[in-house]
Amino acid sequence: MIEATGLRWILTAVFAAAGAFCLYRCIRHGTAASRIGDVLHAAMCAAMVAMVWPATMGLAGLPQVVLFGFAAAWFAVAAVRGGAHGSRWHPGYHAVMMLAMVWMVFAMPRAMVGGGTATTTDMPGMEGMAMALPSAGGGVPADVVLVALPLAIAFGLAGTVFLARGLDGARVAPPSVRTAGWGADALMGLGTSVLLLAML
Q: How far apart are CA 135 and CA 70, in angstroms?
């Protein structure tokens, strides 16, 4: 996983900031549906922080799969219905991100074992799912690379687009919840990209 303590702290700060903004927006702004989306994003950010630190790799996998599976379905329905301001691509993007979270719950222990940084033991609450412990091993499984690399590139590009949109918006008008939301999307996308790359 991530060996550099400095990078762990940077990613922790990135996801904590994005999650804190989502909770703020949930409390202060939006419809009931958008607030549910913000709570789901905050939960995703908390899970991302947990993934950064090896001490949390023993967290039960089944609750995470259920939560992020529900979140993916929630955003997929929002995409079909048009989402905020009639947008379909934005909730659709978040549906893909939540599905990526489900995949990471399963793939991360395998990547850590394959990368020679871990061995496995059953994860509490999810029989047959492994948690990572230090050991030697071979390379990262090919199927993990084939999924993680395209996702990392996609989320990195998306995060860059969100960042550019937020900066452009801030230049033409005073900072708003909307432009800050683009910034939070940028943090989540870029942070997820780095975390996926760290699996390789």
A: 34
